[in-house]
Fold this sequence. Notes:
Two copies of one chain form a homodimer.
Chain A: H1 3-38, H2 45-56, H3 61-85, H4 87-101, E1 111-119, H5 125-134, E2 138-147, E3 150-158, H6 164-176, E4 178-185
Antiparallel strand pairs in A: 1-3, 1-4, 2-3
Amino acid sequence: MTLEEVRKEIDRVDTQIKPLFLQRMACADHVAAAKAENGSDVFVPVREDEIIAKRTADVDAKVKKEYDMFLRHLMSVCRRYQYGILTGMQETVIAQALQAAGLDENTDHEQITVYFTDSRKNSKLNLYMNMVRLNDILIDAMEVTSRDDEQQVVLKLHGNIKEPDMRRLLCQLGKEANEFKITALQ
Amino acid sequence: MTLEEVRKEIDRVDTQIKPLFLQRMACADHVAAAKAENGSDVFVPVREDEIIAKRTADVDAKVKKEYDMFLRHLMSVCRRYQYGILTGMQETVIAQALQAAGLDENTDHEQITVYFTDSRKNSKLNLYMNMVRLNDILIDAMEVTSRDDEQQVVLKLHGNIKEPDMRRLLCQLGKEANEFKITALQ
């Protein structure tokens, strides 16, 4: 195959994937609507792991990790979509985190510091960085340290806690990251 | 739509995406073979931006960012595949970085420190974290600082520079990240 032929093939494949990706996103709308009604949670890691194990079972070892990550990425993006719609959930997550830290959202600030932990071996730092990016939030600073199989993350996000995209991001981190805390508004 | 109905719909869509994703990965094999022959570069950002602009042009604003990120993710994963095959390119990138830093790959070490810069607004930190994850490299520590529209990243990777997955990762970072440097083997 010449480079020109492969490029045509890639173009053909991407053209077929596109409508399916858009359908997948539309599903997130319906999931959010259904979950808003019955109050069930957006992120159920055990269920996700089961689905991924089933889907990847027959995939060639050479591209299995790629397909696994592809699915996790797709699911994370769909959840972000849901968190954006479920504003009641945002309120709860953020109010709880602020209360636990003794912080007031009306404090004048342009930077929010959050803390969470992550597995080192099964790190989801890539997904967390996707979320930050999709919500168009700039990073002022980040520090990751490791101990045994855990990594501790301190992330300084640029912006105000009342901005919709910031609330959506904090809601997703709050629901999905381990030991999530808001530690400062400054 | 009930949650059960949406889940069936998601399952249907994912079943259709799966063979296409695997075909897309197979294309990366052919691209790598063609590029090994004619020596052209794996990462041509201008070309990628053009393709993405064209593909996303008619997509609803509501999911445009998601589709944009989806494509960049897909492309990054395919390039990782290519860097794994193009071992001659790995040799060149790593030898140059070591020489520039006055480092010797035979030094006893279990941690590699790298430095690079990134755009803050168009950050690719999510893609870099994907690469680290796909290559199964553990992060010992990471520090991100920001100044204007630039972020500086210091990343301490756990492992030895002679390991194949580490070489593949360093090659991709070396080819794709701005101002990439290996600063320490320890």
